[in-house]
Amino acid sequence: xxxxxxxxxxxxxxxxxxxxxxxxxxxxxxxxxxxxxxxx
Length: 40
What we know:
The chain has helices at about 1-5, 15-40.
């Protein structure tokens, strides 16, 4: 995914990549943490 973003010719700034990374991390944490509490 990141290779596709970096390889494309779109003018994507580094802070935009950082924000996308943070959003994906927070969303995945919000999904994984309740599931982990249900399983364990």
